[in-house]
Design brief:
Length: 453
């Protein structure tokens, strides 16, 4: 009797989390992003070129963005690549395919909208995280929404809530989803069993995360540019070969965003509301704007002003969604793979391989492994920082749990894992957005100070 009650209650909780991770979370994130974007006078969009000059342009002037007369554990560029390692993951390969499967091509338009507004959201998250970062017990910088909520907003309870959700959500968005997608592609492309994939990934990740944020930063600054160039190069090759289909594909994205899409082939058909929901949720899963997670890495960067580091967040969202996710979507549409029976990363792999036989499978499989591996590294740090905020220690115990979670994710089912990730993302967003809205006046003040320099 008691067991039955527990099962019933657990099922209702999971159902409620899944519901909140859909429409409610999507609306909340869009409205918060819209508010911050309007309040800042569309700063991220108006100053996009100066932002790129002050961030990526600085790599050619100050030695990969390392020095701005400030202390920190990693360089601004390493903070960017660590954050990009977390965001440029399976969301760009499997997540885009899932968005189109469930929401139709129009979902990509709403993914663009979420990124357009998310640039300001992430900008604010990072600036506030740097403003309220502290020295941890290990004499390294620690920051993120939990510290912003505790020291900035004066709400330590909300900080603990965020840390709990972050430490838990990391196993969904940054661990099991990544491991599951890699295992799926490796099994399809090379016949490797999910269990063997999971064990190998767990061992490789353990070798890196034992060195902490400095070792993670050293790895990601080399790995992220390499994996991005490989994937972008492959996608551009597909689009060049199918250039006649690019115009119709873009028209399909924009048109179905407002009209829905009738069923075609293996695609079940989607209405406008489905396009909006899955476009926004998959967009947030990919660029993580509104979750506050990336600010944990940026808080460790050496910078002389919170806003200077916040600018890297704008670049991060732009690269992740407007560049990489868009390329994935176009490949899926121009190849026609989106109407087939496959889903997730397997659909993307089939799309590349249809246009680039043999080579396409290799590009997607290699990119996915690199994307997921880098995401596993960054999110292990995010979850660990949240875990330490709660307990004041226990980092090695969390790292052990992390490696076990990789194996569990590799052998799990795809859709249940994605549903869990959406729900946990939504829980992270709530306290983070409360902090952003409560401190938006300070964010605007920091902006005015920086641009007057």
């Amino acid at each position: 009797m008691i067991v039955d009650i527990i099962k019933l209650a657990g099922g209702k909780v999971l159902a409620a989390l899944y519901w909140f991770g859909g429409w409610p979370a999507a609306v909340l994130l869009v409205l918060a992003g819209l508010y911050l974007t309007v309040r800042s006078g569309f700063l991220a969009q108006r100053r996009l070129f100066p932002v790129f000059r002050l961030t990526l342009g600085s790599l050619f002037k100050s030695g990969r963005g390392r020095k701005h007369a400030a202390s920190g554990d990693i360089s601004p560029f390493q903070a960017l690549t660590t954050a990009l390692a977390a965001t440029v993951g399976t969301g760009n390969i499997a997540g885009v395919a899932t968005a189109i499967t469930l929401g139709g091509p129009g979902a990509i338009f709403w993914m663009w909208v979420s990124a357009f507004l998310g640039m300001t959201t992430k900008f604010a998250e990072i600036a506030l995280a740097v403003r309220y970062r502290v020295r941890s017990s290990g004499k390294t910088f620690a920051g993120g929404p939990m510290y912003t909520l505790k020291y900035g907003l004066g709400r330590p309870g909300l900080g603990l809530a965020y840390a709990f959700f972050g430490a838990t959500a990391a196993f969904g968005i940054g661990n099991m989803v990544q491991a599951n997608s890699v295992a799926s592609v490796l099994e399809t492309a090379f016949g490797v069993t999910p269990l063997h994939s999971g064990i190998l990934m767990a061992l490789l990740v353990a070798l890196v995360i034992l060195g902490g944020i400095r070792r993670i930063g050293n790895i990601t600054e080399k790995l992220v540019p390499l994996m991005a160039l490989l994937y972008i190069g492959g996608a551009l090759a597909v689009l060049i070969l199918c250039y006649r289909n690019i115009g119709p594909a873009l028209a399909e994205i924009v048109g179905s965003a407002f009209t829905g899409r009738a069923a075609a082939g293996g695609f079940a058909g989607a209405g406008v509301l489905q396009s909006i929901r899955y476009g926004i949720t998959r967009g947030v899963f990919s660029n993580e704007a509104g979750l506050g997670s990336a600010s944990i890495a940026h808080a460790a960067a050496a910078t002389d002003h919170p806003v200077r580091q916040g600018l890297w967040g704008i670049v991060e969202v732009f690269i992740d969604t407007h560049v990489i996710c868009t390329l994935t979507a176009l490949v899926l549409l121009v190849s026609g793979a989106w109407t087939g029976p496959l889903e997730g990363a397997s659909m993307t792999s089939a799309a590349f391989n249809f246009i680039l036989p043999g080579t396409g499978n290799f590009i997607v499989a290699t990119s996915l492994v690199l994307f997921a591996f880098s995401t596993l590294l960054s999110w292990s740090y995010y979850g660990e920082q949240c875990f330490e905020f709660i307990l004041g220690g226990g980092r090695y115990f969390y790292r052990l749990l992390w490696t076990i979670g990789i194996i569990a994710g590799a052998v799990g089912g795809l859709r249940p894992v994605w549903a869990l990730a959406d729900s946990l993302n939504a829980l992270m967003a709530v306290p983070n957005l409360i902090g952003l809205l409560g401190l938006n006046s300070l964010f605007l003040k920091l902006n005015r100070e920086f641009w007057k320099k």
